[in-house]
Amino acid sequence: QKQSRLRGRSDCQIDRISAREPNRVLQSEAGVSEFWVSDENDELDCAGVEVARHTINTKGLFLPFYANAPELVYVVRGSGIQGSAFPGCPETFESSSEGAGRGKEQFLDRHQKVFRYKEGDILALPAGAVHWTYNDGDTQIVLIVLRDTSNVANQLDRNFRKFFLAGNPQSQQVGYGQPEREHAGGSGGWGKQKLHEQESSNIFNGFDDQILQEVFKVEFNIVNQLKGQKDNRGFIVRADNFDVLIPEKQEYQRSSPRNGIEENICSTELRANIADPDRADVYNPRGGRLSSLNGHKLPILNWLQLSAEKGVLYKNAVLAPNYNLNSHSIIYVTSGNSRLQIVRNDGTAVFDGFVQQGQLIVVPQNFAVVKKAGEQGCEWVAFKTNDNAITTQLAGRFSFLRALPEEVVANSYEISREQAKELKYNRQEGVVLSPTSGSTRQKGMNALLNVLFS
Amino acid sequence: QKQSRLRGRSDCQIDRISAREPNRVLQSEAGVSEFWVSDENDELDCAGVEVARHTINTKGLFLPFYANAPELVYVVRGSGIQGSAFPGCPETFESSSEGAGRGKEQFLDRHQKVFRYKEGDILALPAGAVHWTYNDGDTQIVLIVLRDTSNVANQLDRNFRKFFLAGNPQSQQVGYGQPEREHAGGSGGWGKQKLHEQESSNIFNGFDDQILQEVFKVEFNIVNQLKGQKDNRGFIVRADNFDVLIPEKQEYQRSSPRNGIEENICSTELRANIADPDRADVYNPRGGRLSSLNGHKLPILNWLQLSAEKGVLYKNAVLAPNYNLNSHSIIYVTSGNSRLQIVRNDGTAVFDGFVQQGQLIVVPQNFAVVKKAGEQGCEWVAFKTNDNAITTQLAGRFSFLRALPEEVVANSYEISREQAKELKYNRQEGVVLSPTSGSTRQKGMNALLNVLFS
Amino acid sequence: QKQSRLRGRSDCQIDRISAREPNRVLQSEAGVSEFWVSDENDELDCAGVEVARHTINTKGLFLPFYANAPELVYVVRGSGIQGSAFPGCPETFESSSEGAGRGKEQFLDRHQKVFRYKEGDILALPAGAVHWTYNDGDTQIVLIVLRDTSNVANQLDRNFRKFFLAGNPQSQQVGYGQPEREHAGGSGGWGKQKLHEQESSNIFNGFDDQILQEVFKVEFNIVNQLKGQKDNRGFIVRADNFDVLIPEKQEYQRSSPRNGIEENICSTELRANIADPDRADVYNPRGGRLSSLNGHKLPILNWLQLSAEKGVLYKNAVLAPNYNLNSHSIIYVTSGNSRLQIVRNDGTAVFDGFVQQGQLIVVPQNFAVVKKAGEQGCEWVAFKTNDNAITTQLAGRFSFLRALPEEVVANSYEISREQAKELKYNRQEGVVLSPTSGSTRQKGMNALLNVLFS
Questions:
Q1: What does the alpha-carbon distance between residue B368 and residue B87 come to, in Å, rounded to a whole number?
Q2: Which of A137, B176, B224, C382 is at a distance of 20 to 30 A from B413, taking alpha carbons?
Q3: In angstroms, rounded to a whole number, what is the distance separating the alpha carbons of residues C338 and C315?
Q4: From the CA of B73, how many Å to the nearest CA of chain C?
Q5: What would the mean pLDDT of A407-413 be, rounded to a whole number?
Q6: Is the dihedral of CA C281, C284, C290, C291 positive or negative?
Q7: What is the average per-residue pLDDT within C156-170?
């Protein structure tokens, strides 16, 4: 499959990569949103993406919006209801007739399909479609969201643009979130920042009252509410009265009547679980597991040209050194921590350190990376900028070394044929490697050797 | 279908959009060409397109050329003959044997397919192919042409480059067309302007006379004419003697013998009518109609990754507020006028005014727009930068509001369930809305309410 | 088929094109590498490619690497063994059991497919895959390599990045190769140059010794060799002991067992001959021949979105003037020389001169070009930035003129119908034109005419 990403950059110097906390925050009535906003020429900018984390309280409704770029969402915690409306798709869900008088035809509400999601799900939000979500559960929802501003779906520029259809995001309170590189206490600088949500009103604000009244055929006070100029709830609002029903067991009906042209988008699945242990693609009982979700498993990802990976490493286990052959990888640690080393084409480590729970790190395409879990183990989700992301292993049973003839290995590294065999075959495990129980004595010897030969 | 557009811009500030007249003009012997040339960071530049309008007099021949970007043409007025030559395609048209001596084999002229077009047609001109057109009618032809310089077919840069194969465009007279932002009366500035046609000779000029004589095996005087250095007719020339014949009823023969590899491009249709009322996709007898022409209807548009829409609004009718989900929209008003409001993601109206006949306006991807016809009604053609452009309605029977559960509507706008129903269902019409016969009294009340509650 | 190339440039002024020698050189133990590195806004930069020429001595091994962009290789001279390792592909080649004790199961070496190539072959190197090559022949291998840094496979920026998996390229000796535009004798400027190979160590250098020991389960001294910090052989090393066996007749087995998902890439052919006379697509016994290799003949080229052309012109023969409809053309002369004229859209010749053996020249998309072989004839290979590159002829049997009605030709050039016939039909040959035996008298007359009429 062909892929294509759009780049504004002709030169991307990546001298140093950071494990990042969000650098912006916005408070809403029923939740909080945090953002990883890119600076010029940093690794997020070079990867052409932005990331957000939304925390939605119980009974919180994320107001309907559309965006100029697709988003890929991982549900870190909680469960809720998601609606994604596509133009031309039919309103196939009907509301229940609550205590209805029988024999008398009642005016029922109809709307497009909604579905339930839960912790460990991936949600695909196509660009341009209208999305909203609601927390009908008992716990907070935490969502981590990749915004692929370089996606081909976006024709304008590389800024992420969110178009709210309700509310008045402008008035919401700004929390901590000073820009990373500015001195604390600075003021007045907010106006120039790349935080589009902050400056936004909903798009109905730009239309004339008279015209809105005309097209909706409603009273002036409703138009007023449509514009939401006095709304100060932010874009996650509290909705107490919310009885949207969905089938208990999500029964996906391919046979439901559709309207021709947009058939596939109307009936396509937008959600898949990636965290269930029994969905693992790679499993080592002594090391951990990996699950990937690509366009083969969730076809909408072919459209979005994105995919995702969920990883679990047990205490001190190692993810074999590898590189992403055809994508960037944007990693968010959901629990524990890991030590990562990320290596550039010239052999320089551009990152060597720990990535903690709640932090984000970018591994650019082709850069080599090794990951070793800390004492609490590590879980993460990685977003990849290709619908069929491929990684190449640099060690282990799937290493490129296995693909090379012994002679090539021996001559490349100036080692004997016997040593080449060891390099190719000593590590029998594949992608997830169990920790070696290195004795203290061996470690001491190694340290000594390091001193002597370096 | 995947689409991809190439962008040189990583940041596109669109603070204000204008209804534009052409800002350049070139006179030719048998016609005049006007151009909408983009400035840095204006909305044409951000959309990655340029637009031209050619007026071709009776018996005018637009000289053969090829370009580095595809063009999509709408025939505003007149009718003519179009030839588009593709390398490797067969010469399937033969000239008639005028008064020929029978029994004696005659040397006939052969050439590739030509076809007739008329007012209301869309013509697709693939990049790199050789195109010419001739006005064999009784009236002027007026063509409005989108040049998609950001198209994937163009690998070099975002400048539009036209390669003429005849004539000497350099010598033609320059008319009014001062750059929009310069003071009138300024002189000497033409040399630096982005007007590629003006500076052009035909490409044979760059070749050595000796080599041209050798490759064509013709006399020197013909080479001289090939280069056209003394030609001062411009690129629309008068051709009195012009007997190219085409089948009276254009009979499209899929079964004609073709030459393998390039089969599809040789036999593909390059023209379709978009203005006939009976081709309307949307029709409201009280409001007007819309016709779209996309890759499903004219497959060459899949190749060009462009499509078009023809709209007619009756007096005071409204095109429901909407946004282009996956394309920019470049609108040219062919008759009457409309009031437009175009709204950015932050709720700001970047345009609020009238667009008159002969003016052009760009609606960037995802920006919301509402259009209300003036007293004479309005007709327009819109070029879209996607072969299957989709719009989302913000009001009316196809509104996103219909796709949302009532609870979402009520909670989003802080209105009652009953009011949410009104917002969802009051306007029963779809895309084209008839004017509401608002009584004077109602308007007065609204004005009052505006004062009281704003 | 859709194609898309990524461009960082929004404006590419091409005022002058040069026939270029390589401007960088790197010495290795068993070979030498020369590079055509682009400067800002020159024609290589505008075409979005770089070019390299590797000379590999007998018994030379080009160390394993992967790159962020696909490469297309033409084998100018010699023969060798190529290995390209893809993640997930099976190790289908086994080493021979040399003098093995029968009855006793022996540990054999296994690796992925390797294949033999020879002079006149094109090799396709997909981005991200691991490649190595070995010269097991008696003569030097000379490879000319196109690096398509603007390819969609590359998501980061337009720099070519080569990731070596062995060796220590940093330490190799730098030869002549001063930048083209600097004064000779200048020093100290190397540090800022775009020569990524020079600054590179292999990527294992960026990883911690401890971690490498752990993941490979090998002794410290092997890790030391893996990093190759004391290796000073460059990236083409001498490998005396090298017994990799390959089937004598390369038998391509489509029926071999594969592993599902990556089936096509594992079994795809990466090599095809383009130089054998009996593969010619165009042949004129008085002029020469042309062979093209595109995605129809070698499907991996569809993936790479690249193709190639091999041309042979006899003494003084002419390649009819033409332009590349949908690609750039990067021409490398393998023997003899040719006079070229390259013409821009405004009719200006941006190149008029001879291109000698060993020189490179870029013909940008849509620019017109004519080529006339010198006294020794000329052979070349042209790399094209489209998997199905198409050229349009401007003269000869396939000229666009044949596609135009006589009336269009006559009126465009202001010539008679009879002269239009001559222009269309006088040259009966197609793409490769035999030299015209112009008598001295005719040439004299032409010179006179030139004086009189110019």
A1: 42
A2: A137
A3: 9
A4: 20
A5: 96
A6: positive
A7: 90
Q: Look at residue A194 and tell me whether its pLDDT is greater than 80.
A: no
Which pLDDT score, from 0 to 100, does residue C351 have?
98
Q: Tokens representing B390? A: 């989709």
Model pLDDT, residue A438: 54
ipTM value, please give it: 0.89
**Rounded Cα distance, A235 and A349, in Å:** 41
Query: What's the sign of the alpha-carbon dihedral A39, A41, A44, A45?
Result: positive
Give dist(CA B75, CA B96) in Å, integer: 28
How far apart are the two ends of chain C, measured CA to CA in Å? Answer: 46
Neighbour count for residue A16 (Cβ, 10 Å): 12
Residue of chain A nearest C40, judged by CA positions: A10
List the single residue in A109, A204, A231 with the smallest CB-CB distance to B414: A231
Largest distance between two CA atoms of chain A: 93
* Predicted pLDDT of residue A265: 81
| CA distances from residue A434 to A324, A380, C204 in whole angstroms, order as listed | 22, 18, 20
**Which residues is C318 bridged to in the sheet?**
C372, C433
Residue A207 has what DSSP assignment? S
Radius of gyration of chain C (CA): 25
Question: Quick one: pLDDT band at residue A92, thresholds 50, 70, 90?
Answer: confident
Dihedral, A411, A414, A418, A419 alpha carbons, nearest 10 = -120
Considering only residues B109 and A58, tell me which one the structure prediction assigns the higher pLDDT: A58
Q: What is the pLDDT confidence band of residue B447, given thresholds at 50, 70 and 90?
A: low
In DSSP notation, C115-136 reads: EEEETTEEEEE-TTSEEEEE--
> Inter-chain contact C427–B158, Cβ cutoff 8 Å?
no
pLDDT for A243: 83
Q: Residue C157 is nearest to which of A9, A400, A405, comparing CB atoms? A: A9
pLDDT of residue B202: 95
Interface test with C, best of A354, A391, A413 (most C CBs within 10 A): A413
pLDDT in tens, B21-42: 999 999 999 999 999 988 877 8
Of B403, B405, B413, the CB nearest to A225: B413
**What's the length of chain C?**
454
With beta carbons under 8 A apart, name residues in chain C contacting A392.
Answer: 66, 87, 128, 130
Provide the 8-state DSSP code for C304.
H
Task: Tell me if C7 and B9 make a contact (CB, 8 A cut-off).
Answer: no
Q: Could you give the angle at the alpha carbon of C189 between the alpha carbons of C183 and C194, nearest 5°? A: 105
pLDDT score of B190 more than 70: no
What's the one-letter identity of residue C74? Y
Q: How far apart are CA C194 and CA C192, in angstroms?
A: 7
Q: Please indicate whether, in this complex, the C-beta atoms of C6 and A7 are within 8 angstroms of each other.
A: yes
Amino acid at residue number A439: S
Q: Which residues of A touch C207 (CB under 8 A)?
A: 321, 341, 343, 349, 368, 370
C86: confidence class by pLDDT, cuts 50, 70, 90: very high
Residue A138 DSSP one-character state: S
> Hey, which chains touch C, using 3+ CB pairs under 8 Å?
A, B
Q: Are A390 and A329 in contact (CB under 8 A)?
A: no
Tell me if B222 and C419 make a contact (CB, 8 A cut-off).
yes
Q: Which whole number is the average pLDDT over A159-164?
A: 94
Q: What sign for the dihedral angle of Cα C147, C148, C154, C155?
A: positive
Nearest Cα to B359, choosing from B114, B11, B17? B17
pLDDT per position as a tens digit, A138-157: 999 999 999 999 999 999 98
What is the count of residue pairs from A and B with beta carbons less than 8 Å apart? Answer: 243
What is the pLDDT, as a whole number, of residue B169? 78
Q: Is the pLDDT of residue B194 over 50?
A: no
- Residues composing chain A: 454
Contact B122, B308 (CB under 8 A): yes
Q: B378 phi and psi, to 5 degrees? A: -155, 140
